[in-house]
Amino acid sequence: MEEATRLIAVRHGETAWNVDTRIQGQIDIGLNATGLWQAQRASLALADEGIGVIYASDLSRAWQTAEEIARPHGLAVQPEPRLRERAFGHLEGMSFAEIEATLPEDAKRWRERDPEFESEGGESLLTFRDRITQVASELAARHPGELVTLVAHGGVMDVLYRAATRQELQAPRTWQLGNAAINRMLWTPEGFSLVGWSDTAHLTVGDALDEITS
Q1: Does the N-terminal or the C-terminal CB of the chain have fewer CB atoms within 10 Å?
Q2: Among 14, 80, 85, 123, the one annotated catalytic
Q3: Can you tell me the distance from the alpha carbon of 56 to that of 84, in angstroms, rounded to the nearest whole number?
């Protein structure tokens, strides 16, 4: 039986658009000052872990977070564009309130988590789920018995949680997806399983904004 791969999945630190509740999607927004602090705190929390490899989305907010986590381990972050956030197409750059006011049908289908809904130029939840579960499984399979860290986005964390707990895409979310939260899973060829979720002990209480776009 193949040895399980241990996974640590970390959402990027805070950005100005997180604060403004603005859809980032695949627009390349960097960390704000709080986000950089959060990334540094996550790095300290993981400094004594035996991390063998770190893969990250190539978008700046995830990449900056990953570089902080990699520093005490002397590792080079491995870029993986398939770990990018869900593409929201023409909704990217808009606030939640703007979407509700100007595109009520899009807002309705998004809020209801319609698996087939694709905003213009974006991707559906079904497509996004398949992308993330495929790449996460592929990366984990490369490192049986090792500790692999994935640094990505709120939507990515949501997909991984659902995969590990066998939650449907349309199931209401009751779990947290905070900035710089530390999440732990196992992977075997049979799939993902949950070990621990949303560890924010390294952050000030209330500092990690929850991802409400997923």
Answers
A1: N
A2: 85
A3: 8
